[in-house]
Structures are given as C-alpha cells and as structure tokens.
Design brief:
There is one protein chain. Strand 7 and strand 8 form a beta hairpin. This protein has 1 helix and 9 strands. With 152 residues, it is α+β, with helices and mostly antiparallel strands. Strands 1-3-4-5-6-7-8-9 form an 8-stranded antiparallel barrel. The longest helix has 35 residues.
Length: 152
C-alpha cells in the first residue's frame, strides 16, 4: 500500500509539473502572440511631434506596414519614405520598440513605446538626439503616430 501511495503521489507531482510547464509555455506564446498583433498594413490617422499635432497634410494618405521584423512607410504616392528593422519587448507595459533604420539613413536608431488595441496602434519614438518616450505624448525630438489597420 505504501508503494501505491508513493507512486500515486509521484504521478500527481509529475502531472502538476507538466501542467505548470504548459502554463509557462502558454504565457510565452501569449507574448509572441502579442507581437503578431502589429502584423499588417495601417493608415496614419494622426501624428504629433515635439509636443504639437502634425498637420494632416504631412501624413494624409501615408501607409505603415509591419511585416516580420520590418516596418516601412509609404506616402500617398506609394513612395517609400522610411524602412527599419525592429524588435519589441511585449513583457514591458507599454510595449517597448527598438528600431534600426534601413532607409533613408541606414543604421540610425530610435526607441519608444507601442500600444495595440483592436485595429489601432499607437507608436511613439525618439528622433535623432531625443530621449525615448515612455508615454503616448511627445516632448522635444520625439514623434507619435496613431495608425488604423487597413488589411488583415
């Protein structure tokens, strides 16, 4: 009887470890799943730079696409005006983004914050010489955009 009890206790212990491990894997997958929320094409619906709203003429018709680890933007004439690689830290609240420019100035770095809610993404980042923003409003040498998903 003691042997059966020991085997049963050991079996239950192993099952609890397996369940706990599965839950850790689910949390890891959730973080990966969060990052995939950015995948897609978006129109820019508003912008802010240096604490002031951007005139609509500066972004109207512009499109931003997140694909894999790349982000790129095209203007109303479909001409690419920037491209970068990026990494996300989805464990941070809000998410943190780090970008390295491919064009127009290769190697330029920018950091900031991202929030994805439904079909809307907000992204705020520093311009050259500025500090990385920690919230969704700008100060000097920072830029923010609100994006609305256009394709799934």
């Amino acid at each position: 009887m003691l042997r059966v009890g020991t085997v049963l206790a050991f079996t239950l212990f192993c099952i609890s470890l397996a369940v706990a491990d599965d839950k850790r894997d689910e949390k890891k997958d959730d973080k990966k799943g969060d990052a995939t929320k950015l995948e897609g094409t978006y129109t820019i619906t508003s912008g802010e730079r240096d604490g002031k709203p951007l005139p609509e003429a500066e972004y109207k018709g512009s499109v931003v696409t997140f694909k894999g680890n790349k982000i790129f933007g095209t203007d109303k004439d479909k001409k690419e005006f920037f491209a970068a690689t990026y990494t996300l830290d989805t464990a941070a609240k809000p998410w943190k983004i780090n970008m390295v420019s491919i064009s127009p100035k290769e190697g330029e770095k920018a950091s900031g914050v991202v929030e994805a809610t439904g079909d809307t993404v907000k992204v705020c980042y520093n311009l050259p010489g500025g500090d990385a923003p920690t919230e969704f409003k700008t100060k000097g040498k920072q830029q923010c955009f609100t994006l609305m998903k256009t394709g799934k």
